[in-house]
């Protein structure tokens, strides 16, 4: 009714006297029509609005609102098509196909430019005044989120352009977001965690004094979920993400408000919070996301909740209930460009199958997850994927033929190289993972007992010190298995009991039952 009454204000005098209000009104009207699936009416409202504005700033505002609406409705590909068309009108050519050499070339140019300009001096740059450059930056800035899901190379190119516009023309409205996203790329793609974190902090600094900066939710979410954990303990990420959620609600940035809950959910699971608490929070977050009507993040959170269900109540290795049905919903992920939860599904199944010693099934999940690793650029899930993939390969090793063993070793070595780099950057999050994989790799190569046990102990110590409860339990379990295989039954029993207690503390009831049955069999074999 409010919108219908507002339509009576179409007379020219209203546009003359209250242009800003009329602009806001019709943007809201077009958005509400779109959200109510009245697509023809929405397009008509946008066209009417376009006919009433002349300035490049207002026309760009309309384009950016369209891009956002498409992205919010899982139409990331369509939003990229729109941005390409509009950028082309502004004489900004974006190649249809962007290869790695093209990206590396532009990355080199930007790196050289940044080498001549100290990063800490960016805040002292003058303000961006060229209206055309500001408009181009706005369109590119609104297109980076959908580009993340559609084409990572396009994301790199967009961010590269935004940073270069800043260095050449000064600080614009999109500069803080560009700096944060560049920090994400440096961390996630180039493993330059120190510099990436520096860019992330720089971005936070630029919005610190502007409580209503349009990209506050985006920047806080990117820093909290995709940058900070590469340098600091995962605990320190949560507050940034909670702030991102609140900012998103206040500013109407529901996409990144939802993404922030996404990030919190997995971080709570990954850092070993009690499973019941994680599940309760996931259920709460699903309800919160459903209220703001953005389904993509709800699916990702549901996956984490379902994994908690399996570990707490009954492990079936299937996610099938009224909330989520993997047979139907996985295909919907693909149809809706919802690639992040699609990747997380395979990571969660890899973890689940590995924990219950179904190594062949876990390997199938790992193979699929490897194909999709770019989908989760920057997230801590990538580290967990490499961690569990490596452990599972070690578990499978004895069942492989000689050629398969060579390939298996090569992949583990490659994974260890990554894990070592991540552990070096942030020991509190990743050192125990590197130590445990190295210990398992020593085991399958029959390396010295002293060095192998030392690595298990290093993993135990690091996981305990940094509060990674589930990985502490896993470390005890792996050390117990090592002792059992080495015919050191007494030590094996001791560490298996420690593993059981640690899994109890985590709340993984099904895993506790699994290990208790395993320990019972070991003891019965001894008696026999």
Structural write-up:
The chain has 528 residues and is mainly alpha-helical. 76% of the residues lie in helices and 0% in strands. The chain has helices spanning 2-6, 12-17, 19-35, 39-52, 56-72, 76-89, 100-115, 131-150, 152-169, 175-188, 193-207, 216-227, 238-251, 254-270, 275-291, 295-312, 326-335, 339-355, 359-371, 381-396, 402-425, 427-444, 449-465, 469-485, 489-506, 509-527. Helix 11 (193-207) runs antiparallel to helix 12 (216-227) and helix 25 packs antiparallel against helix 26 (509-527). The longest helix is centred in the C-terminal third of the chain and has 24 residues, at 402-425. The chain starts with a helix and ends with a helix. 47% of the residues are buried. The model has no long low-confidence stretch (mean pLDDT 91).
Question: What secondary-structure arrangement, pairings included, does this model have?
Answer:
Blueprint: H1 2-6, H2 12-17, H3 19-35, H4 39-52, H5 56-72, H6 76-89, H7 100-115, H8 131-150, H9 152-169, H10 175-188, H11 193-207, H12 216-227, H13 238-251, H14 254-270, H15 275-291, H16 295-312, H17 326-335, H18 339-355, H19 359-371, H20 381-396, H21 402-425, H22 427-444, H23 449-465, H24 469-485, H25 489-506, H26 509-527
Helix pairs in contact: 3-4, 3-5, 5-6, 5-8, 6-8, 7-9, 8-9, 9-10, 10-11, 10-12, 11-12, 12-13, 12-14, 13-14, 14-15, 14-16, 15-16, 16-18, 18-19, 18-20, 19-20, 20-21, 20-22, 21-22, 22-23, 22-24, 23-24, 24-25, 25-26
């Amino acid at each position: 009714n409010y919108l219908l009454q507002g339509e009576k204000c179409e007379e020219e005098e209203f546009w003359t006297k209250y242009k800003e209000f009329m602009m806001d009104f019709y943007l809201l009207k077009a958005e509400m029509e779109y959200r109510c699936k009245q697509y023809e009416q929405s397009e008509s409202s946008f066209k009417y609005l376009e006919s009433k504005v002349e300035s490049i700033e207002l026309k760009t505002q309309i384009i950016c609102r369209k891009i956002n609406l498409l992205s919010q409705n899982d139409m990331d590909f369509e939003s990229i098509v729109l941005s390409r068309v509009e950028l082309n009108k502004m004489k900004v050519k974006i190649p249809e196909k962007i290869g790695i050499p093209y990206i590396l070339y532009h990355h080199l140019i930007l790196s050289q430019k940044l080498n001549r300009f100290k990063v800490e001096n960016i805040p002292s740059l003058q303000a961006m005044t060229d209206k055309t450059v500001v408009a181009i930056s706005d369109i590119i800035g609104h297109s980076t989120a959908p580009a993340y899901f559609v084409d990572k190379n396009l994301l790199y190119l967009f961010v590269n352009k935004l940073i270069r516009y800043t260095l050449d023309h000064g600080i614009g409205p999109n500069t803080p977001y560009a700096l944060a996203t560049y920090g994400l790329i440096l961390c996630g793609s180039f493993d330059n965690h120190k510099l990436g974190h520096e860019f992330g902090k720089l971005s936070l600094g630029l919005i610190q004094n502007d409580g209503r900066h349009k990209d506050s939710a985006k920047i806080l979410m990117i820093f909290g979920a995709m940058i900070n954990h590469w340098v600091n303990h995962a605990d320190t990420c949560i507050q940034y993400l909670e702030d991102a959620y609140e900012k998103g609600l206040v500013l109407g940035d529901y996409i990144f408000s939802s993404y922030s809950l996404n990030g919190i959910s997995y971080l709570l699971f990954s850092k070993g919070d009690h499973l019941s608490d994680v599940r309760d929070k996931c259920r709460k977050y699903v309800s919160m996301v459903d209220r703001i009507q953005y389904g993509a993040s709800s699916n990702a959170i549901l996956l984490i909740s379902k994994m908690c269900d399996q570990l707490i109540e009954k492990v079936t290795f299937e996610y099938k209930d009224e909330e989520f049905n993997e047979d139907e919903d996985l295909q919907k992920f693909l149809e809706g460009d919802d690639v992040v939860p699609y990747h997380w599904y395979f990571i969660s199944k890899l973890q689940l199958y590995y924990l219950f010693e179904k190594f062949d099934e876990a390997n199938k999940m790992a193979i699929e997850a490897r194909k999709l690793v770019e989908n989760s650029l920057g997230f801590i899930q990538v580290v967990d994927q490499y961690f569990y993939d490596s452990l599972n390969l070690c578990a499978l090793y004895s069942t492989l033929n000689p050629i398969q063993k060579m390939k298996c070793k090569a992949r583990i070595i490659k994974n260890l190289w990554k894990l070592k780099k991540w552990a070096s950057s942030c020991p509190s999050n990743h050192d125990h993972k590197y130590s445990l994989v190295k210990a398992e790799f020593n085991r399958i190569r029959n390396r010295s007992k002293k060095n192998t046990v030392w690595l298990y102990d290093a993993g135990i110590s690091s996981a305990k010190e940094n509060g990674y409860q589930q990985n502490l339990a896993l470390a005890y379990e792996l050390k117990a298995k090592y002792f059992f295989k080495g015919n050191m039954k007494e030590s094996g029993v001791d560490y298996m009991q420690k593993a059981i207690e640690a899994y109890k503390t985590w709340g993984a009831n099904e895993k506790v039952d699994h290990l208790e049955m395993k320990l019972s069999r070991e003891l019965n074999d001894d008696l026999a």
